[in-house]
Amino acid sequence: MSTEMNIEEVQASLDRSPFISFMQLQVVSIDQDKQQIALKMPMRPEFERGAGTGQWHGGAIASLIDVAGDYALVMKVGGGVPTVNFRTDYLRPLMNTDLTATATVRRAGRTIAVVDIDVTNDEGKLCAVGRGTYLPVVG
Amino acid sequence: MSTEMNIEEVQASLDRSPFISFMQLQVVSIDQDKQQIALKMPMRPEFERGAGTGQWHGGAIASLIDVAGDYALVMKVGGGVPTVNFRTDYLRPLMNTDLTATATVRRAGRTIAVVDIDVTNDEGKLCAVGRGTYLPVVG
Amino acid sequence: MSTEMNIEEVQASLDRSPFISFMQLQVVSIDQDKQQIALKMPMRPEFERGAGTGQWHGGAIASLIDVAGDYALVMKVGGGVPTVNFRTDYLRPLMNTDLTATATVRRAGRTIAVVDIDVTNDEGKLCAVGRGTYLPVVG
Amino acid sequence: MSTEMNIEEVQASLDRSPFISFMQLQVVSIDQDKQQIALKMPMRPEFERGAGTGQWHGGAIASLIDVAGDYALVMKVGGGVPTVNFRTDYLRPLMNTDLTATATVRRAGRTIAVVDIDVTNDEGKLCAVGRGTYLPVVG
Fold first, then answer.
1. Per 3-state DSSP, what percentage of chain D is helix, strand, and coil (rounded to 5)?
2. D7-134, what's its fold?
3. Tell me, what's the pLDDT at C80?
4. What residues does C83 pair with on adjacent strands?
5. What value of ipTM does the predicted structure carry?
């Protein structure tokens, strides 16, 4: 029996987490063959760096990166995949835009998985990148 | 004229940011000589990984690391210090506890600053570590 | 006057460094439009983890990643570009093979540049990845 | 039976690796209780960035960081401990000096270990820092 999740199951799994639910993440697309998932995150006032600036705080961007990297694996194994560590690089300010994170599995080994995450703005411009290491669940 | 901030000024600066304000960060201590700041973050329902578990989501921990690292520099220069990149390592699950992040400047150069951040639980046990690179503001 | 280097100039620049010269790096290709460079590194006995195993030590792989990331920028600006920090992830053991590192600039800003580096074996299999931050030279 | 190594056993283990042997690493001290090891690395012409400059190439520094972090664990478990990933931050140029790397285990869990590595020059000044994740050997 396959443990792969479809787009509705991934969305339902995201929505079950209070933290992710607060982030209002929406699944844009999943591709099990490419081991890739895209998530969208709308601005909300609590995520602004400075009041009324429309600028995303870096912590919200890092949170998106962590979740997107995680779910590129979760959607495959059907369960929780703890983050070991991850790196966030900020390339450009993100202002007055939704965020889209596209996470791609670079390696899913027996002991360790590595995922790359690109974050783009509404114009598709690359604004932040992440790289995370996760512990794959042994079924 | 010194640009160093005292504890009330640091707290006021934190509170002005909607994102940080939502995180309810409290300054525990600052030490300008040691270039060290400690911030406390209480649990709130929106930060739980799973509903009712009392477990912190990793994204909230990463956000705390970013802010603490940043403010170890902000309290010195008196203004914004953009994050270049940072790394978060999760060492133990954080459950049913406040978080305390202690950030220590390892190097504040002319072009780049590096800060280490330790995150402990209520018992003082080390549960996560961060390391961030920041662009110091040229006065 | 352009500061862009051609393939012979990049090779000559690599060869001038004792460390890189010892690594015996060869430029495979450069693409200024894609901001991409590929470097090849042959095994030598000093780079083995265990004697006679044919397995690369991780330190040699990390060194290759640092140099490849650096030269994706050097070939553009025509001079030294200091590394701020970099991360190395090992995905598979590298044994009895040359290494090829392909470095691609993800962002070359005014203050900070970020480069991704993929390391493959003779069969083109991805075995390690790097991500580095560099300080672009101001001309 | 303990698997802990004494200083002579650690030195002998280092010397058996062609790569580490080429680096001429010497154990300065080990402390099993503190989970800390210090290694010294002398300059050799092959490690210079530019010929005759006396400046260390960053790749050699990163290699030292990887090995020191690894051996903070190896000395405990008595066998190989693969590196998952590591980060290197350069804080100051290292010129005309030996390097000393002091590696301290921050967490040695069942599945993942995290080690911090500080690199100082002959005057004890902090010049680079590393943080590595390793897979502890299950005995």
1. 30, 35, 35
2. Thiol Ester Dehydrase; Chain A (3.10.129)
3. 85
4. C134
5. 0.96
CB-based contact C84 B133, cutoff 8 Å: yes
Residues with Cβ within 8 Å of D8's Cβ and at least 6 positions away in sequence, in order, are none
Q: Residue ranges of the domains in chain A? A: 7-134
Residue D12 makes CB contacts below 8 A (sequence gap 6+) with none
CA distance B111 to B134: 9
Higher-confidence residue of D82 and B2: namely D82
pLDDT attached to residue C79 = 85
Q: Do D59 and C58 touch (CB under 8 A)?
A: no
Specify the residue for token string 């680096």.
D23
pTM: 0.97
Taking alpha carbons only, the member of D91, D86, B133, B92 closest to residue C112 is: B133
Q: What are phi and psi of C2, to 5 degrees?
A: -70, 145
Q: Say whether residue D125 is in contact with chain B using an 8 A CB cutoff.
A: no
List of residues 6+ apart from C139 with CB closer than 8 A: C3, C77
Query: D108-119: per-residue pLDDT in tens?
Result: 998 899 999 999
CA angle D24, D28, D33 (to 5 degrees): 130
